Amino acid sequence: MKKLLIISLTAFLFSCKSGKKEDKPADKSATTEQTNSNPDAGTTTEPAYTPNTNSFIMVEGKELKLSSSILVDKDKNKLKAGAPYRAMITTSSGPDNEGLILRFVFDTKPGTYPLTGFSYGRGKGDAGQQFGGLLGGQEKIYPNNVTLTEVKDMGDNGAGGHKWNISGTIENLTIPAMGIMLMDKEKNHPKEIKIDKISFTGLSFDDNAEEMLQKAMDQMNQMKKNK
Hints:
single chain; alpha+beta; 4 helices; globular
């Protein structure tokens, strides 16, 4: 339960940090050009997607550009020798509520590392579709890999560890539908989905995030005791 709380709080912390970094104003020239080329731009209700993204997904011939954040902790299960860290990448939602979650183990150097979990969803309500699943059960090594093309040590994070930036790609990933989705025959849920390529760029993390969070929790508990 303690581990689940730490991971959940860390995910929230990384999500907030990622959101702050990505809330940059859109390129005004790009916005002006798009508005002038579309006479109906003033009446559209579609959300305005800016080029400030760090993930690219090609699925069924459709290109999605999304923002992503990464959560990293130590892999206590030691699923693979030479891969001491465990990562979870979560993307924002696309125009049709598309979203991707990836898990893998890795080391802080470029190379090829195995995926340990994945999930992809799209659509809303009765039209929603869900592939893969990450809740419950034990993580395991899948035959699919992530290739880390760039790993940068950004230096001391001022809290006893280092901050890192990583970029990478995944190709030809097939994710089966969740079993419960296939039980409703009327929905005609696809049995699987094939993602041609996934790439992410410049995702940052602290290599001692768990220790940082635990220290913060200890300080909060001490403050409560002192009141």
